[in-house]
């Protein structure tokens, strides 16, 4: 990360006197209603603008259907219904799909296949398409040669298709953002860890929200000076949910880092307002209480030395700080996003560029999806749009990386984040974040054992399914109690885990990795049966019995 050149750090002041420092008023970054005013537009870098005087800013929200009912996509024309266009197909090497001309004879077809060193394995009948295998390294050349053959009506590459890793969270169909930044592919590698604590500096977090149950450690309230960090405004709850709502729990939305831990630090009041002194104190408090990442969806048009010193204090402890760039459609810096040592995040539209209302410029490092369904207070869900929604996405990506590679330094993570971003010329310094590419750049690869380790579990069985072995059976003696079993796997399609006792089946679960099963068991021998499709999978199984 960049270092602040001013080194006169006052750590004692940070620990004891931040709240007493006269701070600049700082508040929520205005969230926009979806609709025409949130249209995507071409961006031109603007000349630096005069810094306006601070003013109170509050969010605007669009309420979605009650999550207890059947969630629906937003009406046509709303931002959140846009479809991403940046996902790239994966082609099967050494495999072409060829349809020969109806006039071509058998000998001509055989000659065309032989000319590219190919062989015909099977076909797609009755449409007359042949599956042709060619040398893997010559796939593209063979494609071009067959395209020029008079005996061929058409030839194309075969596309790798996999089951979508679709969480069962009700608002998942409205979440275009995770697809845009390749989160499902990243979730195959890391789904987060409870050991990674991400502080959310905001209006607090609603402790009663079902989608965040079990997700938080105790926080602090810098507004009132006590431990009650309950949200009395709504903005903080929305930001925290984008970041870490529990995924695949049939509640609300899918969070970016659905197994990470949230530390709610209330630095803004019920009106969404605070001061740089309170923000600085919150940064220091979160740093001293174990946060590895600090996410801030707030800002002001100017900064203070106190805020800069707090950022440097956290940075010196290895903490990674992320902040929203602001929603003024301006190149004028917003703070703390523009503070040295903070990762500044703009809001990307479904098309991949910035929304017209997102702040932009070289001081904005990366962009992330700028709209997401999110809970407000009570049972209402809102279409949460703004850089306030984008910053938690980046904080969550960092949480995924730290979960899978706890030894990664802040500099390594920031370099991977920046280097793998897709460029957005003249809008942000590096581009639109790519979750899967970022993890790959850090050398993070998924294994079933590592997936279990992220939850603090050890495998008791490991194995592989595929070909003539679509089933694996293990026997284990269990004592009476509450059995919890977790099956993590890579490759192949959905698997099934079944537990059987001498008296008959105990429990069964099927689906995507990881599978979780809980059941009461009696003492005795039990069978753990893992079954799957012919495509195969490598798996690891953890099992534990808690005694009454």
Structure description:
The protein is an alpha/beta fold and 548 residues long. It folds into 3 domains: 11-84 and 169-441, Rossmann fold, CATH 3.40.50; 91-159, Alpha-Beta Plaits (2-Layer Sandwich), CATH 3.30.70.80; 448-546, Jelly Rolls (Sandwich). Helices cover 20% and strands 27% of the residues. It contains 12 helices and 26 strands. It has helices at residues 11-16, 106-115, 139-147, 177-180, 183-187, 235-244, 276-288, 305-316, 387-404, 410-419, 435-441, 448-453; strands at residues 25-28, 63-64, 91-100, 119-124, 129-133, 152-159, 197-202, 220-221, 261-266, 273-275, 293-296, 298-299, 320-324, 342-348, 366-369, 371-375, 381-385, 431-432, 461-465, 471-478, 481-490, 495-501, 504-511, 515-521, 524-531, 537-546. An 8-stranded parallel β-sheet has the order 8-9-7-11-13-14-15-18, sandwiched between helices. A 4-stranded antiparallel β-sheet has the order 4-5-3-6, covered by helices on one side. Strands 19-26-21-24 form a 4-stranded antiparallel β-sheet. α6 packs parallel to α9 and α10 crosses α11. The radius of gyration is 26 Å and the shape is globular. The two termini are 50 Å apart.
């Amino acid at each position: 990360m960049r270092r602040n050149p001013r080194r006169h750090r006052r750590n004692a002041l940070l620990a004891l006197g931040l709240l007493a420092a006269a701070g600049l008023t700082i508040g929520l970054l205005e969230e926009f209603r979806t609709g025409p005013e949130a249209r995507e537009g071409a961006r031109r870098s603007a000349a630096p603008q005069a810094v306006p005087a601070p003013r109170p800013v509050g969010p605007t929200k669009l309420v979605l259907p009650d999550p207890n009912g059947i969630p629906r996509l937003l009406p046509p024309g709303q931002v959140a219904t846009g479809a991403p266009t940046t996902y790239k197909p994966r082609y099967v090497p050494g495999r072409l799909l060829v349809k020969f001309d109806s006039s071509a004879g058998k000998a001509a077809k055989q000659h065309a296949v032989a000319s590219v060193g190919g062989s015909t394995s099977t076909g797609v009948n009755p449409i007359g398409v042949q599956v042709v295998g060619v040398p893997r390294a010559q796939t593209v050349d063979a494609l071009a040669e067959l395209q020029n053959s008079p005996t061929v009506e058409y030839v194309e590459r075969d596309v790798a298709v996999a089951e979508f890793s679709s969480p069962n969270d009700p608002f998942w169909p409205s979440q275009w953002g995770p697809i845009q930044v390749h989160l499902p592919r990243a979730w195959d590698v890391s789904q987060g860890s409870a050991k990674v604590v991400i502080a959310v500096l905001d209006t607090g977090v609603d402790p009663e929200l079902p989608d965040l149950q079990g997700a938080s450690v105790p926080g602090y309230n810098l507004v009132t000076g006590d431990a009650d960090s309950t949200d009395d405004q709504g903005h903080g709850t929305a930001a925290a949910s984008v970041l870490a709502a529990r995924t695949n729990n049939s509640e609300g939305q899918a969070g970016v880092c659905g197994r990470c831990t949230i530390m709610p630090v209330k630095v803004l009041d019920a009106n969404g307002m605070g001061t740089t002194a309170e923000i600085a104190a919150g940064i220091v408090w979160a740093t001293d209480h174990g946060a590895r990442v600090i996410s801030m969806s707030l800002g002001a048009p100017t900064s203070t030395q106190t805020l800069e010193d707090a950022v440097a204090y956290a940075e010196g402890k290895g903490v990674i700080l992320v902040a929203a760039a602001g929603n003024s459609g301006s190149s004028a810096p917003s703070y703390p996003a523009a503070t040295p040592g903070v990762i500044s995040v703009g809001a990307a539209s479904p098309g991949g560029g910035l929304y017209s209302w997102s702040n932009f410029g070289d001081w904005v490092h990366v962009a992330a999806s700028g709209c997401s369904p999110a809970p407000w207070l009570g049972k209402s869900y809102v279409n949460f749009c703004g850089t306030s929604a984008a910053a938690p996405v980046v904080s969550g990506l960092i949480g995924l990386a730290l979960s899978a590679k706890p030894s990664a330094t802040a500099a390594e993570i920031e370099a991977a984040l920046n280097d793998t971003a897709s460029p957005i010329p003249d809008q942000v310094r590096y581009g639109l974040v790519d979750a899967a590419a970022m993890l790959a750049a850090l050398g993070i690869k998924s294994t079933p054992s590592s997936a279990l380790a992220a939850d603090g579990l050890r495998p008791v069985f490991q194995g592989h399914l595929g070909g003539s072995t679509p089933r694996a059976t293990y026997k284990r003696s269990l004592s009476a109690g509450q059995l919890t079993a977790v099956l993590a796997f890579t490759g192949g399609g959905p698997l099934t885990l079944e537990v059987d006792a001498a008296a008959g089946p105990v429990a069964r679960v099927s689906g995507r990795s990881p599978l979780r099963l809980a059941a009461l068991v009696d003492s005795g021998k039990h069978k753990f049966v893992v079954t799957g499709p012919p495509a195969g999978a490598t798996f690891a199984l953890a099992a534990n019995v808690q005694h009454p």
